[in-house]
Design brief:
The protein is an alpha/beta fold. The chain folds into two domains: 132 residues, Rossmann fold, CATH 3.40.50; 111 residues, Winged helix-like DNA-binding domain superfamily/Winged helix DNA-binding domain (Arc Repressor Mutant, subunit A), CATH 1.10.10.10. The protein is built from nine helices and six strands, in the order βαβαβαβααααααββ. The strands form two sheets. It has a four-stranded parallel β-sheet with strand order 2-1-3-4, sandwiched between helices. Strands 5-6 form a two-stranded antiparallel ribbon. Helix 5 packs across helix 7 and helix 8 crosses helix 9. The longest helix has 26 residues. The radius of gyration is 20 Å and the shape is globular. The chain starts with 10 loop residues before the first strand and ends with a strand.
Length: 258
């Protein structure tokens, strides 16, 4: 590290008011020692965590995002929002994996109001793992322009992702193991490939072109895509009026209003 200083990850945390936030407060009152790397946003329920919150935290430079809620079955609301949080985390991890970002940078934990020491231990473990991973993008081997384009691409797709989740992926199980099995199933992976993966590639390209016009080769190199794949997406985007091709510059640019 520059100057011999150890890398200190920046973490944004979304904590449930009734359980995890109270647990964090207890850890402080009890003077349990844990790394001060996390900036906390208190929510009334972990079910209020929107995929956009998570993606924009990474876009703004967070090296990790933490979501803390009540244990399953112990939510303070009739809707049991922590089950919704579990689905959101699974979906966001799949999206991060699609763009080459380590999904373990996003972490969900259940911490009750009486578990101050557990909160401290979880923070110690998360910070330690992020230190080993290094800064966001660096460990993944993604350049800064590509990382920005990839994260913004996912952010663009969040309304569509919510629609797919509501219409095709919304489930309700009783255990975390059942959620893990479902979201890692061939059925869900196939659905992601069919409905989301292709749109994500186009979204990445459009996000990259927001900064400046680029050739097919430049787009492919920056995003780590096959040039023929980029050409196919550019042809489709041109027909939809999303991009235009400058014959003299031999570069693609966003069409006006795209």
């Amino acid at each position: 590290m520059a100057g011999g200083k150890e890398f200190e990850p920046m973490i944004l945390g979304f904590l449930c008011n009734w359980c995890c936030y109270a647990g964090a407060d207890l850890a402080g009152v009890s003077r349990y020692q844990y790394p001060p790397n996390m900036r906390i946003i208190r929510l009334m329920c972990s079910g209020r965590v929107d995929p956009a919150f998570i993606l924009r935290a990474f876009i703004k430079g967070a090296d990790g995002v933490f979501v803390g809620g009540c244990w399953l079955g112990e939510c303070h609301y009739v809707t049991e929002g922590n089950y919704d949080a579990l689905s959101v985390i699974h979906l966001c991890k799949k999206m991060l994996r699609l763009i080459g970002v380590d999904p373990e940078r996003l972490r969900l934990e259940w911490v009750s109001a009486s578990e101050g020491i557990r909160f401290a231990e979880v923070m110690e473990d998360f910070v330690s793992k992020l230190k080993k991973k290094g800064p966001l993008g660096e460990t993944e081997g993604i350049s800064e322009p590509a990382l920005k384009a990839k994260l913004q691409a996912v952010d663009r797709l969040i309304p569509y992702l919510k629609l797919v989740e509501r219409e095709r992926l919304r489930v309700r199980f009783e255990t975390e193991a059942e959620y893990d099995e479902y979201f890692n199933s061939e059925e869900v992976n196939s659905l992601f490939g069919e409905l989301i993966a292709e749109k994500l590639v186009t979204s990445q390209i459009l996000s990259l072109l927001e900064s400046e016009p680029r050739s097919t080769g430049e787009i492919a190199e920056t995003l780590g895509l096959n040039p023929s794949e980029v050409s196919r997406h550019m042809n489709d985007s041109s027909r939809q009026g999303l991009v235009r091709y400058d014959v003299e510059q031999k570069r693609y640019a966003l069409a006006t209003g795209a």
